[in-house]
Amino acid sequence: MTEAAGTPATQKNIGLTYGLIGGLVSAVSVLVFYLGGVSLFLNWALNWIPIVIVIVLAVLAGVQQRKVNGGYLPFGQALKTTFTVFVVAVGIQTIFTYVLLNVIDTEFRDAMQLAAIEKTEEVLRNFKMPEDKIDEAMKQAANSDSYSIKSMTLGFAFNSLLCFIVALIISAIIKRNKAPFDNAFTQ
Asked: So where does this one cross the membrane (predicted)?
């Protein structure tokens, strides 16, 4: 079945295709960080690499959608395409991370939880927080599970909200509307 250029089905295919690529990149990144150990997995600087790649993929998807539309891309369609890339990529990464840490290697999850608690304590001490507040924060951190289904679902929702904001910015930049009188004299 062929679709006319710029139809919603084409739009979804572009966003979905680039989102799947982004999800694959994100999942491979999670796997590489996992294989590198706890310190690599928790390294915030390196975790920006797949995020930047997914942002680039969202831009490329929007530009591709504009090409499919003959050089024009309304803001709403740009937003749908770019946000689809983000949601699919973040969804794949979230599911992969959940399975990795809750099914495949729960010991790694526990080691990460411990390392995160130790790092939190170190940061709080560097900020010269009172000892009773540090103890309270440590108790709270020890009782939380950042990788439970609930926490990861909330993380997915929060990340999707952040991605929506980025998609709004990208869409505002890449949109291109037809001139209002483009076909006025040719008919």
From this structure: 16-35, 41-63, 83-104, 154-174
b/e per residue 75-106 (b: at least 16 CB within 10 A): eebbbbbbbbbbbbbbbbbbebbbebbeeeee
Cα Rg, the chain, nearest whole Å: 21
- Name the burial class of residue 44, with classes exposed (0-12), middle (13-18) and buried (19+) by CB atoms within 10 angstroms of its CB: exposed
**Rounded distance between C-alpha atoms, residue 116 and residue 106, angstroms:** 15
Tell me the residue type at 181: F
Q: Which residues of the chain have pLDDT under 50?
A: 1-3, 6
Which helix (H) or strand (E) segment holds residue 148: the answer is none
Q: Phi then psi for 73, rounded to 5 degrees?
A: -155, 105
How many angstroms from the chain centroid is the CA of residue 128?
A: 34
Residue 162: per-residue pLDDT: 98
The pTM is what? 0.84
Nearest to 6 by CA among 56, 76, 57, 93: 76
